[in-house]
Write a structure and sequence with these properties.
This protein is α+β, with helices and mostly antiparallel strands and 512 residues long. The chain folds into three domains: 266 residues, Thrombin, subunit H, CATH 2.40.10; 75 residues, Roll (Pdz3 Domain); 95 residues, PDZ domain (Pdz3 Domain, Roll). The protein is 15% helix and 35% strand. The strands form six sheets. Strands 4, 7, 8, 9, 10, 11, 12 and 13 form an eight-stranded antiparallel sheet that branches. Strands 28, 29, 30, 31, 32, 33 and 34 form a seven-stranded antiparallel sheet that branches. The protein has a six-stranded antiparallel β-barrel with strand order 14-15-16-19-18-17. Strand 17 and strand 18 form a beta hairpin. The protein is globular and about 75 Å long.
Length: 512
């Protein structure tokens, strides 16, 4: 799913993709406000006049004969929800170069404008957090405290503490703070978010717009929501009203346990429209455990590039179920290569637990400890087998697989056609014409019929076809022969391995 407009707001606003339709907002602290020596201004309440109801109100929900209320729950958990205030020093901009101004204005700037240079400014912004340990460990969002020079935590009873940043994980947007207190602090417990169902009641507590101890209620709207925010988190979608400043605040179930942490909203206006996203408690616990112990997060690394198994890809491979993840490429010398994992293998399970898709596999591998061994159940050539792999350690800047693909520069004549593609063998002349680098072999695409399935799948001139139907190809005739064989078997599509400007990947192309 693609969202037309992504707006991330933490200490600073960041516009990632423009559109007027809607916006996805990281619920941080609102846009940073420059405050030389003052507290953040609080919004003034507005009186909203509504028309009288045309019909009697429906009866209130009852519980054991009494009106339903969240009051007891809120009273119990609210003391552990805190306001996180972050102070950031904004660097001055370059300003105006007085030497570029006419003489009268140049003298004015030199005398009154301090050479056009701006002074450093202090920006203060606010978010939410919650205490998970009576000794003073507090969880919030990474984007709430990112780049903060001073972090202060305020409790509902008025107590304030300077907070120490224990560690952050940008990939999951989780941060852990620590405060020192002479007395045990109020805290909350995590629930098992895997037991959460769509329709369950939830309570969101936080500090929207700096209004501390604000409580809203709603239900779970969806679970396992992928909003394109990285491979390590599937969000819980809730309709409890959350707004800027709610970031880092907890989402509770009816037992008063934390099922998630509020982080984003989807909105056309910047305000809540009932679509909010919370990081699941299971993800938070795994990350917090590593941050408390090491101050950083270490993720397992397999050394493969993977892609999801779609129904179309499954059909082209002769499989009835679109489950698992396809190995699109294997990093030479990586853990998977050393264990004998092959390009085109389909990973079905890890340590006996089924793999749903490529995101599921990515998260599962990431949570495996470096140096540990794991058993991967794979499907290769229609047969299942187990492969034991010693997990490596992922570096954040580590490339999953090399990408030495072609640049798509025209310059070769087609010597064959198939599936709406013009094809040519990768000869030395073609390598030079298409600026091919590295160990690339196969059949190059010289043209693409704009009305073909290949065009719809994003194949471009300069892409190299390395395999068709799990077999290597070196000439256009090889491609044509593989396509003809698949058609003779009654298949409507054929699996093609493409190496292009976006790296290696499998594509199911229609034969017709």
């Amino acid at each position: 799913m693609q969202y037309p407009n992504f707006v991330f707001r933490g200490p600073r606003a960041r516009l990632l993709a423009a559109s007027s339709a809607a916006a996805l907002i990281i619920l941080g602290l609102g846009a940073a406000v420059t405050l030389p020596h003052s507290e953040p201004a609080k919004p003034q309440p507005q009186i909203i006049h509504a028309a009288a109801p045309a019909r009697p109100s429906p009866p209130r929900m009852l519980e054991n004969g009494a009106p339903f209320s969240f009051a007891d729950l809120v009273e119990r958990v609210s003391p552990a929800v805190v306001t996180v205030t972050v102070e950031e020093q904004l660097q001055p901009s370059a300003g105006i170069d007085p030497s570029q101004l006419p003489e009268p204005f140049r003298d004015f700037f030199n005398q009154f404008g301090q050479g056009g240079q701006q002074q450093p400014r202090k920006a203060i912004s606010m978010g939410s957090g919650f205490v998970i340990d009576k000794s003073g460990y507090i969880v919030t969002n990474n984007h709430v405290v990112e780049n903060g020079k001073k972090i202060t935590v305020k409790f509902p009873d008025g107590r304030e503490f300077d907070a120490h940043l224990v560690g952050t994980d940008k990939a999951t947007d989780i941060a852990v703070l620590k405060v020192k207190s002479d007395k045990p602090l109020p805290s909350v417990e995590f629930a098992d978010d895997r037991q959460v169902r769509v329709g369950d009641w939830v309570i969101a507590v936080g500090n929207p717009f700096g209004l501390s101890n604000t409580v809203t209620a709603g239900i779970v709207s969806s679970i396992g929501r992928d909003i394109g925010n990285g491979p390590y988190t599937d969000f819980i979608q809730i309709d409890a009203s959350i707004n800027r400043g709610n970031s880092g605040g907890p989402t509770f179930d009816l037992q008063g346990k934390v099922i998630g942490m509020n982080s984003m909203i989807f909105s056309p206006s910047g305000g809540s429209v009932g679509i909010g996203f919370a990081i699941p408690s299971s993800t938070i616990r795994e990350i917090v455990s590593q941050l408390e112990q090491h101050g950083h997060v270490s993720r397992g690394w397999l050394g493969v590039s993977i892609q999801a198994m779609t129904p179309e890809l499954a059909a082209s491979m002769g499989s009835k179920e679109a489950k698992g993840a396809i190995v699109a490429s294997v990093v030479p010398g990586g853990p998977a290569a050393k264990a004998g994992l092959h390009q085109g293998d389909v990973v079905l399970a890890v340590n006996g637990k089924s793999v749903e898709d490529n995101r599921d596999l990515t998260r599962r591998v990431a949570m495996l400890a470096a140096g540990s061994s794991a058993t991967f159940t794979i499907n290769r050539d229609g047969q299942q087998r187990n492969v034991t792999i010693t997990i490596g350690s992922r570096k954040e800047d580590q490339q999953v697989a090399s990408n030495n693909g072609p640049q798509g520069v025209p310059g070769a004549e087609a010597t064959g056609e198939a599936m709406g593609l013009g094809l040519a063998a990768v000869t030395p002349e073609v390598r030079r014409a298409y600026s091919l680098e590295g160990n690339v072999s196969g059949v190059i695409v010289t043209k693409v019929d704009p009305n073909s399935d290949a065009a719809d799948k994003g194949i471009e001139p300069g892409d190299v076809i390395e395999q068709v139907a799990d077999q290597a190809v070196h000439t256009p005739k090889d491609v044509q022969a593989r396509v003809a064989a698949a058609k003779a078997q009654g298949r409507k599509s054929v699996l093609v391995l493409i190496n292009g400007s976006r790296g290696q990947g499998f594509v199911a192309l229609k034969i017709g």
